[in-house]
Specification:
alpha/beta; 7-stranded mixed sheet; 3-stranded mixed sheet
């Protein structure tokens, strides 16, 4: 049986999240897996990798350093997206086509169910239809706009690139990576959502539409979470994708009804109650005071630890 390959792209700001994501897959998969990490600074993640290297479902973990010119990556100022998002456009430069198919996965994704059968079935369909990529088409109502219309895509389809199944062998033989990078350089006036726009401009609907349960993007606002949960069988979600600018390791994101999916996985791996990151002191104090006065902290699984950690964080700053 061919081992499933997962590839992550990140910088050191997402080290903990990446390890948590890998751990979530290892805890759910029914078959051993390979993990490949394209990283801005691989040395920064090596110690954390020790937490998952010895897992019984780990087959191999390989890290590679991204060393290409990133000066022309656009729309990164004041964005929750980093330059590492664009690393996806260079996968052909760093990985052997012998991998054939692999799953690209963002580090803000948590595995909820065994993904093996669905991934293998999707790969089979991609092969039968001679398609080079599989992805989940975005729900226009959910994202509040039509990105396909913004990019004038004839297919009127637009996919989320947080999880993709890719045929790397054909990406190499058909020089798709080179073509993607050319779009990035030549279509800067069109690009808003970074490399995701680049990918959609190139494929324009020519992809296998994966089950939405393979990339369940978690809405930012609580009301939107409730609406989406009513449309899905929550017990069938394979991957939760915490897209957007309110992550479950940030204070505002912690109030998301699905934040515990991430925090519980982190808890089981690191034996700590919560993961908090990227918190400005002024906003942290404001949110803490509001949380205490409204008693919203009582909603958390470990409310007293939450208060303790926040106070400790503020003192340290």
């Amino acid at each position: 049986m061919i081992v499933i390959n997962f590839i992550y792209c990140l910088d050191e700001n997402y080290n903990t999240q990446c390890i948590t994501s890998i751990f979530s897959i290892l805890e759910k998969t029914s078959e051993k897996a390979n993990f490949f990490i394209l990283h801005e600074n691989p040395a920064s993640i090596n110690k954390l990798l020790q937490r998952v290297e010895g897992h019984k479902m780990t087959n191999d973990i390989v890290t590679k350093k991204f060393d290409k010119d990133s000066s022309f990556f656009i729309n990164l100022e004041k964005s929750h997206v980093s330059a590492a998002s664009y690393f996806r456009l260079y996968l052909d430069e760093y990985f052997d086509g012998g991998l054939k198919y692999f799953v690209y996965i963002d580090p803000d994704v948590i595995c909820n169910l065994d993904p093996v059968f669905t991934i293998r079935d999707s790969i089979k369909k991609m092969s039968q239809k001679s398609l080079n990529v599989g992805a989940v088409t975005e729900d226009v109502d959910e994202v509040k706009s039509s990105n396909s219309s913004r990019l004038n895509l004839p297919s009127q389809k637009y996919f989320n690139a947080g999880i993709m199944i890719i045929n790397l062998a054909t990406w190499k033989s058909e020089t798709i990576g080179i073509k993607l990078r050319e779009i990035l350089k030549n279509s800067k006036d069109k690009i808003v959502l970074h490399d995701q726009d680049v990918l959609n401009l190139f494929f324009d609907g020519d992809y296998l539409e994966l089950s939405p349960y393979l990339n369940f993007t978690v809405p930012i606002l609580n009301d939107d979470v409730s609406k989406k949960l009513n449309k899905f069988e929550i017990g069938e979600v394979i991957f939760y994708h915490f897209a957007g600018n309110r992550k479950p390791w940030q204070l505002k994101g912690l109030f998301n009804p699905l934040a515990e999916v991430y925090q519980n996985t982190y808890r089981n791996l690191f034996n700590k109650k919560y993961h908090f990151d990227n918190m400005p002191k002024r906003k942290t104090l404001s949110i803490l005071l509001e949380t205490i006065s409204s008693r919203r902290f009582l909603e958390f699984k470990f409310p007293l630890h939450y208060i303790y950690f926040m106070i400790k964080f503020l003192i340290s700053k």
